[in-house]
Amino acid sequence: MLGFLFGRQTGLDDPLRLKRAESTRRALCLELNPDRNVERIHGNGINTIDIEVIEGRYMLSGGADGVVVIYDLENHSRKPHYTCKAVCTVGRSSRHVHKFSVETVQWYPHDTGMFISSSFDKTMKVWDTETLKPAEIFQFVENVYCHQMSPIARKHSLIAVGTKNPKVQLCDLKSGSCIQVLQGHRGEVLSVKWSPRYEYILATASTDSSVRLWDVRRASGSLFTLDQFNGDPSKSSSEAANTAHNGRVNGLCFTGDGLFLLTTGTDDRMRLWETATGKNTLVNYGKVVNESRKGLKFAVSQGCSLEFAFVPCGSSVAVYAVHSGELVTMLKGHYSNVDCCEFHPDYQELYSGGKDSNILAWIPTPRPPDIEEEQDSKKGGSQVALNPAFEDAWSSSDED
Amino acid sequence: MWFRNRSYAAEWRTMNRKRALKCDTFCGKRGRSGAAEPLPAAAGGGGVAAGDRGDRVGGALDIKASLEHIMSLLPGKLWSDTVPRIALKHQLYSLHRDRTRVDRHLNELREQGDVLMFQLGFDSESVAVVFAADFKAKVLAAEVGRATQGPVEKFLNTVLASCCDMSVDETKMLQEFLFADSEITQLVKCGVLTVKDAGSWWLSIPNSGRFTKYFIQGRKAVLGMIRKSKYSEMLKSDLEGRQTTSRVKFHIQYHIHDIVGAELVDCIETTAGVLLRFADS
């Protein structure tokens, strides 16, 4: 560490190198910390979490009871022990709350004045954060599984919506209606993700075992379908031709630079694809247990020298090194199935939510304090961080 | 609410792995001479592979040695001269930790022509690996004196020598390799080709039916032994020491490599050794 600091100071190293080395070290030592808690508001399972990209301060969560909660993740108390409090809630008592479970929530990518939630009550609502009232409601014919707005888009404000219908709908925020339909899938669309590199590229995953990449400007259909055998007809049986997985594909995640796409399927496999060509990189992650009937929401780290994928597997979160396929560790802590997880790139923290209605915060292990600091505090005598439970309550004086 | 029990042995093992990854990051990648790290994450992954470029040749030989070891676990007396020794690809995963590297080295061996890979058919994921020389010798030995000898020899010399695929289709056979329809029928009859769809065939190992039968029986028996024990888990050393029933015809280590590699059981490190717990899914 000192070597990196010296290198940066003298200009021998790129400043990015120190940042990435330290981010990787922090991402590798995630654990549950007794000092950090997220307030428990949901009464039922938590289906989705989203952290806003502008400041990284507010977190949205959507639950199985239709409740949407906004948390403040920043620590303004001067103490190390901190509970992330809920700033506001769209609870069951609100007139505009979703009737059934909220499947996906997402902040408006450019500011926190707005967020979008979609639910099994066949609607997608665009909320005003200030008043917590929906500014726009999009009605659909079928249950909505997922939606996403492109995080980098400047020229369009399209929301891609995946429902039980095989057609992927594109809704325009500016005009308030569904303006385009992408046809090609033959089963329910479980997951949609925009590329973080090109604002017109969209990936969709479906129960017909295929993953399609679309350019929304093109009217004629998908760009290509991801094929797990890389177009080699010899390895597959004819039913498995042109499929990304041998079962339903229920999770999609682009890496931070948008060059690679991770997909998970109910055949207990996770695959890494090159986005430019659609080639299967054949990285072998082993068995990635996946029993989710709906979409699986997983996250990939950003800003580290080795990217990690955080995938919910049963009641724990599995951490895989993306390009080598190695299982780094399993984060165990939830009492029930984990449904979603989200990585905070600035602090290298992981937030995961599950059916036990808890959101757990996985924090990098703090470095042990230096020996000099300990001696100073002993000399100084002031014990600011002493837990009141350990303080002596008795006094040795006779008068008391 | 935030206090969770953790297994110390599992934690020790993950700590070792994480320490290895952290050392890589902080000390620079092996094989690089202190140049600045490449920026995109893709090249970061490539950097790890570059570190073992030096032992890539060593890695392929390593895989070959593991294959030979697994094949040696097949019993000698059951093995007649007609069937080559078969190992399954996922058995290698139980011997080597890095699956992607195993896959890559195996593909290299296959491109060099040292090994052949076949789809076994009972499981869409199981791939059988045999040594090419062994396979050719056994097949030719079985065909001596029979009418199908000619087409089989032609097949071995042309198709197996040139293409590395696991299946062929009609157009390829007829045009590229100039086989007649009757010759294809003879190849199917002697077992070198198996029907996949109308007009395409899997390459297969002749007379491998007995192997498949014993293999599936043995796998079920070994999994049954684990499932019937208390809490559906057993120490690996205990399992090796158990007396196997007559259903298990192969050495029990062969089946243990198979179930560990195919992840039909979870491997948990304990202070008393490796524990195999039946993974129900």
UniProtKB/TrEMBL annotation, chain A:
<comment type="function">
    <text>Substrate-recognition component of the CSA complex, a DCX (DDB1-CUL4-X-box) E3 ubiquitin-protein ligase complex, involved in transcription-coupled nucleotide excision repair (TC-NER), a process during which RNA polymerase II-blocking lesions are rapidly removed from the transcribed strand of active genes. Following recruitment to lesion-stalled RNA polymerase II (Pol II), the CSA complex mediates ubiquitination of Pol II subunit POLR2A/RPB1 at 'Lys-1268', a critical TC-NER checkpoint, governing RNA Pol II stability and initiating DNA damage excision by TFIIH recruitment.</text>
</comment>
<comment type="subunit">
    <text>Part of the CSA complex (also named DCX(ERCC8) complex), a DCX E3 ubiquitin-protein ligase complex containing ERCC8, RBX1, DDB1 and CUL4A; the CSA complex interacts with RNA polymerase II; upon UV irradiation it interacts with the COP9 signalosome and preferentially with the hyperphosphorylated form of RNA polymerase II. Interacts with ERCC6/CSB (via CIM motif); promoting recruitment to lesion-stalled RNA polymerase II (Pol II). Interacts with KIAA1530/UVSSA. Interacts with a subunit of RNA polymerase II TFIIH.</text>
</comment>
<keyword id="KW-0853">WD repeat</keyword>
<keyword id="KW-0833">Ubl conjugation pathway</keyword>
<keyword id="KW-0227">DNA damage</keyword>
<protein>
    <recommendedName>
        <fullName>DNA excision repair protein ERCC-8</fullName>
    </recommendedName>
</protein>
<dbReference type="GO" id="GO:0005694">
    <property type="term" value="C:chromosome"/>
</dbReference>
<dbReference type="InterPro" id="IPR020472">
    <property type="entry name" value="WD40_PAC1"/>
</dbReference>
<dbReference type="Pfam" id="PF00400">
    <property type="entry name" value="WD40"/>
</dbReference>
<keyword id="KW-0597">Phosphoprotein</keyword>
<dbReference type="InterPro" id="IPR015943">
    <property type="entry name" value="WD40/YVTN_repeat-like_dom_sf"/>
</dbReference>
<keyword id="KW-0539">Nucleus</keyword>
<dbReference type="InterPro" id="IPR042238">
    <property type="entry name" value="Rad28/ERCC8/Ckn1/ATCSA-1"/>
</dbReference>
<feature type="repeat" description="WD">
    <location>
        <begin position="242"/>
        <end position="283"/>
    </location>
</feature>
<dbReference type="GO" id="GO:0043161">
    <property type="term" value="P:proteasome-mediated ubiquitin-dependent protein catabolic process"/>
</dbReference>
<dbReference type="GO" id="GO:0016363">
    <property type="term" value="C:nuclear matrix"/>
</dbReference>
<dbReference type="InterPro" id="IPR036322">
    <property type="entry name" value="WD40_repeat_dom_sf"/>
</dbReference>
<dbReference type="InterPro" id="IPR001680">
    <property type="entry name" value="WD40_rpt"/>
</dbReference>
<feature type="repeat" description="WD">
    <location>
        <begin position="182"/>
        <end position="217"/>
    </location>
</feature>
<feature type="region of interest" description="Disordered">
    <location>
        <begin position="363"/>
        <end position="383"/>
    </location>
</feature>
<dbReference type="GO" id="GO:0006283">
    <property type="term" value="P:transcription-coupled nucleotide-excision repair"/>
</dbReference>
<feature type="repeat" description="WD">
    <location>
        <begin position="331"/>
        <end position="362"/>
    </location>
</feature>
UniProtKB/TrEMBL annotation, chain B:
<dbReference type="GO" id="GO:0046579">
    <property type="term" value="P:positive regulation of Ras protein signal transduction"/>
</dbReference>
<dbReference type="Pfam" id="PF10494">
    <property type="entry name" value="Stk19"/>
</dbReference>
<protein>
    <submittedName>
        <fullName>Serine/threonine kinase 19</fullName>
    </submittedName>
</protein>
<comment type="similarity">
    <text>Belongs to the STK19 family.</text>
</comment>
<dbReference type="InterPro" id="IPR018865">
    <property type="entry name" value="STK19-like"/>
</dbReference>
